[in-house]
């Protein structure tokens, strides 16, 4: 699956969405003006003997401009307010629907299985592990991904899905949601929510006018008529918006299904998950009051019986796209699942092993996760322990005294962790780092700020080493918002610095380094590049994170340049593998995870 092409398509759809939104708003403004001017004519008749002003005269007056500006201001401000409410990313969406954040060290057997699958998929995709939310009160079989980018993405799953799915089906659905993350769908989906909020607010104004127009006076009656008119126009605008949302969403669901098959190498997983939805009495319904505005985020239709303006294709079409020869029967899947769950489902108090047999367990991610010591993996799941783990990963040595503010108990914990971490390979350390974002995200703002300052001081105590730089760059990526985009020339320089670092660390011979660098530089069409020599670590730390803003086509070229740079000598070293995995994180780009 060409994720960069799909990201580019999502960007184009955002432009189309803006165009359709502008068209909808202009239509609403025109209709509101028409309605208001008609009411003005009846409310303010001319003195005796003078003719009634024509509707055209009213529409050409300054009042029309004022009404248009006011309407546009209301819609824009409400959409902007909704967008600001969604600044919290996926967590804000999940919590608005009653989602409960799962903790790996307190999860039940089913919950642990879900967390294991999410971790495997994230590591395989070259992205950080997102927090996972469970919608406990929802019996329907459904799931969603939400966020502005992989940096603030979350995965949500309903209780009905957790109870119904076996591991293969859960993998298929989670892979489907990760494809939305990698395809750039999430940001588009949140923009849809903000746009629709602005249009829908016109209906709320109409309701308010209707409720406030009590009385039998002529003015009250006309105010009520205006309220009814605005309510109807708001509904029409909302229907228009939902049509846009449905059209955008349906095609993306087919794409995500196909991506899930490619990702897990198991078409039966997602096909059986869809069949279970069709056989369930609850289907994929989600009943929370706030779910309606998020309907396009979900794996299945949250109102399955509503076929018109549905945000998802029919189940039958989705299943046959995966299994062309499906017989159309849902019931056999339920019977098979009942037998399988009775024989295999773990007891609620027993966490499931991360590497349970399945086609997806062949992914290198499972091997990397299984190789991590349990004590370190458990520490990565708790906020306080993850903070100590982050400090230990950057600790310069036993005699370091550059953080006098650390409590003696924290320093003792770090001293215990340092020898354990020293036994890990660089690649295992980076995998451990990828597990930490959910736990670090639970720290308070002040705690995160202090931790970032401490980590920077630890890195500055050993600034010219690859290992500490990788740890610092990864943790800095997790703990800070995306930096501002770079100017075009600075983007080129940052890309060349990335290739220079990769060439320098991946080849011992100076000529091979230069050949690898220039091969990569040519791939991004920079033909007059100069070999940068030894890495400038501070400059790399300042510029590389901003490459996340590269356009999808630019990222595609840079990923190809990385591949060519690594392939120069025909051998991919351990350092190169770690750097490629790190670049996948910093670029928020899908880079295939290679075997160790």
TrEMBL record:
Q: Which UniProt keywords apply?
A: Cell membrane, Hydrolase, Membrane, Metal-binding, Metalloprotease, Protease, Transmembrane, Transmembrane helix, Zinc
**Per the UniProt entry, what species is this protein from, by scientific name?**
Ferrimonas balearica (strain DSM 9799 / CCM 4581 / KCTC 23876 / PAT)
Q: Which PANTHER family match?
A: PROTEASE HTPX, PROTEASE HTPX HOMOLOG
GO BP annotations, alphabetical order: proteolysis
Q: GO MF terms on file? A: metal ion binding; metalloendopeptidase activity
Q: Name the lineage.
A: Bacteria, Pseudomonadati, Pseudomonadota, Gammaproteobacteria, Alteromonadales
Q: What protein does this entry describe?
A: Peptidase M48 Ste24p
User: Membrane spanning segments where?
Assistant: 20-40, 60-81, 192-211, 223-244
Give all residue intervals belonging to the Peptidase M48 domain: 110-323
Q: Name one Pfam family in it.
A: Peptidase_M48
Q: Which cofactor does it need?
A: Zn(2+)
| Highest taxon in the source lineage | Bacteria
């Amino acid at each position: 699956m060409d994720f960069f092409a799909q990201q580019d398509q999502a960007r184009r759809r955002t432009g189309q969405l803006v165009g359709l939104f502008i068209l909808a708003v202009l239509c609403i403004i025109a209709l509101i003006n028409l309605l208001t001017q008609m009411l003005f004519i009846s409310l303010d008749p001319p003195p005796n003997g003078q003719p009634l002003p024509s509707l055209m005269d009213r529409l050409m007056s300054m009042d029309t401009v004022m009404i248009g500006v006011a309407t546009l201001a209301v819609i824009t401000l409400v959409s902007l307010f909704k967008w600001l409410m969604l600044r919290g990313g996926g967590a804000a969406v999940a919590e608005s629907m009653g989602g409960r954040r799962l903790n790996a060290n307190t999860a039940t057997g089913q919950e642990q299985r879900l967390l294991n699958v999410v971790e495997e998929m994230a590591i395989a995709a070259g992205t950080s592990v997102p927090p996972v939310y469970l919608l406990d009160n929802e019996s329907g079989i459904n799931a969603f991904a939400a966020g502005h980018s992989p940096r603030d993405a979350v995965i949500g799953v309903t209780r009905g899905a957790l109870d119904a799915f076996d591991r293969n089906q859960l993998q298929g659905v989670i892979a489907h949601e990760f494809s939305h993350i990698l395809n750039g769908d999430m940001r588009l989906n949140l923009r849809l929510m903000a746009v629709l909020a602005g249009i829908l607010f016109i209906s709320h104004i109409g309701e308010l006018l209707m409720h406030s127009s009590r009385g039998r006076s002529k003015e009250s009656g006309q105010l009520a008529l205006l309220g009814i008119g605005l309510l109807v126009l708001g509904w029409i605008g909302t229907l228009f918006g939902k049509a846009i949302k449905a059209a955008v969403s349906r095609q993306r669901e087919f794409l995500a299904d196909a991506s899930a098959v490619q990702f897990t190498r198991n078409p039966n997983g997602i096909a059986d998950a869809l069949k279970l939805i069709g056989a369930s009495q609850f289907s994929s319904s989600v009943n929370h009051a706030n779910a309606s505005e998020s309907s396009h985020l979900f794996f299945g239709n949250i109102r399955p019986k509503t076929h018109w303006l549905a945000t998802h294709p029919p189940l039958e079409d989705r299943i046959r796209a995966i299994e062309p020869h499906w017989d159309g029967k849902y019931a056999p899947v339920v019977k098979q699942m009942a037998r399988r769950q009775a024989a295999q489902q773990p007891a609620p108090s027993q966490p499931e092993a991360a590497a349970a047999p399945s086609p997806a367990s062949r992914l290198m991610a499972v091997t990397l996760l299984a190789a991590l010591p349990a004590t370190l993996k458990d520490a990565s799941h708790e906020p306080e322990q993850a903070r100590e783990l982050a400090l230990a990963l950057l600790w310069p040595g036993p005699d370091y005294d550059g953080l006098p503010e650390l409590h003696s108990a924290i320093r003792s914990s770090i001293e215990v962790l340092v020898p354990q971490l020293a036994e890990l390979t660089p690649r295992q350390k980076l995998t451990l780092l990828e597990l930490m974002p959910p736990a670090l995200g639970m720290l308070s703002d002040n705690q995160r700020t202090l931790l970032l300052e401490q980590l920077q001081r630890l890195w500055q105590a050993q600034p010219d080493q690859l290992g500490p730089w990788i740890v610092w760059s990864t943790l800095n990526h997790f703990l800070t918002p995306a930096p501002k985009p770079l100017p075009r020339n600075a983007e080129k320089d940052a890309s060349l610095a990335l290739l220079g670092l990769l060439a320098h660390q991946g080849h011992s011979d100076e000529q091979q380094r230069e050949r690898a660098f220039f091969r990569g530089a040519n791939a991004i069409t920079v033909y007059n590049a100069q070999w940068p020599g030894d890495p400038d670590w501070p400059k790399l730390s300042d510029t590389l994170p901003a490459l996340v803003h590269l356009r999808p086509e630019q990222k595609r070229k840079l990923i190809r340049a990385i591949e060519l740079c690594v392939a120069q000598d025909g051998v991919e070293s351990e350092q190169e593998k770690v750097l490629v995995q790190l670049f996948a994180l910093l670029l928020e780009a899908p880079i295939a995870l290679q075997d160790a």
